[in-house]
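I am sending you the entry underneath: sequence plus fold tokens. Let me know what the token row says about the fold:
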Amino acid sequence: MEHFILESTGLPDFLPMERSEGIHVSDVIYSLCVSLGYYRPTNDDTIDKTRMDLGRALEHAFCEMLILDDPQRYMRIGELCLDDISGNLDLYDILKSRPKEIKLTWRSARHDINGPKFWGNRIQAICYAKMLGCTSTELDICHVDGNYEKDFSQRKVIFNNWICDMSSKTVNGVWDMIRRHADTMRKKG
């Protein structure tokens, strides 16, 4: 009879997250979400690294699949920077001239995309639009537990694609909020 022995837990650190020094869009959004009560504060001991790495793996795989499927439409741009705030966009849709951000979540798909549960995701997608000079953005969200059906056998993974066309005023207003909060964060150290 075979007997398996646990060798390790957690995903291997295949692609360590590389970011420029300084403030990143996601750091500013996280800080704002905590201050608005949308997120509970975390520290390095409470961050579920495996969950984060799984999300990064999905983003990477999905980006690669889209690029292979339609190389004339999608491209990776790499790190962006505006007003000393950096951001790492998942993809750029050349055909639609807009950024495409991809997220993996355990939040229910029942929650309104325009409500507080997805505020941070929406703001991040809008920030990338600003950084690219766009007024349109795209947000793909994969809900691992779907709608949280009570009967677990009925749960289905849900993958939603959201589009947002905005005015320049809206995009600039979001960016001003991010820039001001980043300045506050820098002053606090």
User: Anything to note?
Assistant: The radius of gyration is 18 Å. The chain has one domain: 23-188.
